[in-house]
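Preliminary data (for renewal application), succinic acid complex.
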Amino acid sequence: MVMWVFGYGSLITKAGFKYDERLVGFIKDYRRVFYQGSTDHRGTPEFPGRTVTLEPAEGEICWGAAYKISNKEDQEIALTYLEVREKQYDKKEYVDVFTEVNATTPAISGALVYIASPNKKVNVNYLGPASVEDIARQIVQAEGPTGPNREYLFLLEKALLQIGCKDKHVIDLANEVRRIISEEP
Ligand code: SIN
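Predicted structure:
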């Protein structure tokens, strides 16, 4: 059986595992939000960064990239890798991925997606909503072992524009981060 992994954050820009096919598409009834705290990649326990998670949102869609892994051994290697990389994401869901806006039949059924839930009991790093200004300030300050938090945001903004997706939440945050940086002494 082939396996598909759907990425909506850093997985769009860098899979990090071997795959046979990459398909740009979207999932339904979710929106991408910078509500997850990152203490292991783009921040530290003292100064957590912010990364994206998915929030249920009826009628909305979230664009990303799906990766097909056919070989059983490659699937196991990818899963082991993702369990470490996405370890601050406490939920695994299986979603339908669509490529055409008017399609009723998905291009892929049951793609694996990692979600950081708002349940603070199991997801201690969850940060939740805040104003664009506050989220942007936090992103400007944070840096972790994978690099500056602002780099994560800018890479995501670029990757989304490359696939033709104008995500207002991401663009607003990137613009605010650029504004803050431009005022830095
Ligand atoms: C994803 O990219 O699908 C999950 C969030 C992230 O790792 O940035």
